[in-house]
Amino acid sequence: MNPRTVSSDLDFVLPGEDWFLYWRTSAALWPEKLRQIKGKRVIIPLYWAMHVREDGKVDFSEERPSTDLAKLINLIGELGKEAVLFVPLSPLPFLPNGGIPPLLVKGPSISPEGLIECAMDLEGHVHKLYSFFDVRIYQAFVQFAQALGQYLSQQHLAVDVWGIEGGYLADGKFMSYLEDRSKVFEQAFSRFLAVKKDEYAASDVPLTVSPEKERALQDEFTATIRDLYTQTAQERTAHHWEGSLRVAFLGGGHQSFFQRLAGGDTQESYAWMVQDALAQNALPSTILLSPEVKQGPLARLMQEMVAQGLLIEKFQHRQYEQDNTSDFLPIVFFNILATEEGTWQRNGLLTYLQQHYRGLYRFVDPAQGPSEDPETLDRPFFITGAWAKPEKLSLILKSFMAGGRLILDQQQLPPETLRRLETFIIENNLHQESINLQTVVRLISLGDGRLILFDGRALEGLEVDGQMQFWTALLQVFNLQHLAVKCDDPVICGWRTRTSNALELNYEEIRRMGLYNPTSYKRKIKMDLPKNFVLARVIDEQHVKVQTLPGAVAIEMLPGGSVAIDFGLFAG
Amino acid sequence: MALAEDNIIGIYHYFAPTQGGAAYYLLYVFDHQGLLDRETLHKTYTDMFFSSQRKMDARYVGPFEGLENVHQYVLRLCGQQDVAHAHLFAAADFNQFLENTTTADDLGVLLSTQGHQLDNLEKLKRKKGLLGKIFS
Questions:
Q1: What span, in angstroms and rounded, lies between the C-alpha atoms of B110 and B11?
Q2: In the prediction, which pLDDT does A292 show?
């Protein structure tokens, strides 16, 4: 695929997923282009450099019509849509210099592996990204955020503002463009380290900086700067602020950069990245990709799972929208504590979930942990022993007592946490059962709450089959209602759900399965329907043959094929 | 296509990845069709240096004690892939090229022609022999 072929000017302005790049067309053409957007919302990523004049002043339409955000937002309103502003909290790879004003271009951002952070846009331009640890960039950002906040208030614009942190996916993980090891970063970090050393000196505990400790401090410093940019944007845009989002740019990162440089990027690799992005709680974006790569199944996957799924879920904040039964929202079965120790790889959980529940789990920041949020309480939450330090025990127990379902791999569990946990179980006379599934599994119950304890070390020495048997047996406890897709070679499968409407009262909910074959091979799939699943309708078959069999569905997908199938779900 | 055929391009860096100590590591190895398969790269490394990659950072190839080892390794790859040349770039050199480039096409030309060139003499001999036969 050639990343330098562009089919129409619409690709520049509307790169997909309802993003609108207002600076890439004349303001006079905005209405015409905006009418092409099918979704309810129009996402407007702000091009910071576009709004800064040569004298450094921030401009919203005083000099250039193409910076007139009020006109743009009002136009979107007139079309019956809602505008959403994305404010950059990091360099953004689809913009020259990552989006910063040219006057601030100085120290390039350097990746942890020593390369300048860069990205190739859909025309083959190479954009270098610059360090957000540069004090001048932060000061200019404060001015920009201040001017934006004032402008939105003065113009009485009804618009939501989200801060976005750009990044990319590498080996399934979200890598932020804020990560930086440039000289600019090192200078700022050395000042941070000096402050830390002073703090430690005051507490009589000397700070010894081993390589591991230094990495942890670098991460802490990066998180501090991330919070600084986020808080600045939040405070300055005040009433408009909705939160911050991570955006995973498909085609970003050096691995994809070199692959694309050689013209070797494929739809298939990006389609899997979409699922990885969802697992990482990041919004995937195809803005860097050429129209040739992002057509067909990938375009449909992005439209259905992102524009009509994830975006609706992220942006819905009004009651009437939550009650809107026509929206299909992504299904999430599991939460997994994101850890660096590789626990979930070693004990086979990730392999199991990728085989049976790919795209249906989310990693949770260790800073958050399990919650008492009723919306997610029935979602099994996997926790590592290393994370469950004594001070985290109250979070675990609160969630458990509220009805949460928690699964704790006890390896590296601090003895103090275990001691307190055992005391809690005895003092409250909690019901417990033990079974032997390759290792002893303890199930502790309290109302709807479930706490499962096992030692994952016993799983690490097992063959994959043994690990899969363990997870299959363990997860039966939760009686999850899911339809397994059997396929020798994997296809991309996306699940969404909505409540049933007045005409579908036989069903408890409607689940929509999207199947996408971005490969150049034919795929055959068979699904045995559980008793409480009924095939309701087949939608928009593209190079796909769907055949209903007694108690099963057989699907044949040609290369580039895609289909959506609705299933009615009875109470189980 | 911006990248020349019959060529491997490698980018290396002396650093300490998440796992393993400071040494030379090959960060990216690719040809005109894309990145070389990671499994092949790691197998070749293990075959040559008798060291398991298990405790190393699986994203990179290494560690290499010295640049000489990197060169030997890349020449082995040239033999396996049956290509005539390799162009190797230290991360700092790559960065310099990148700073002076604005398009993928220009960068591709630089990466195909600059850097430390290694020649696969066997392939070149065969090429020369074939051309000699044709034009003799």
A1: 13
A2: 87
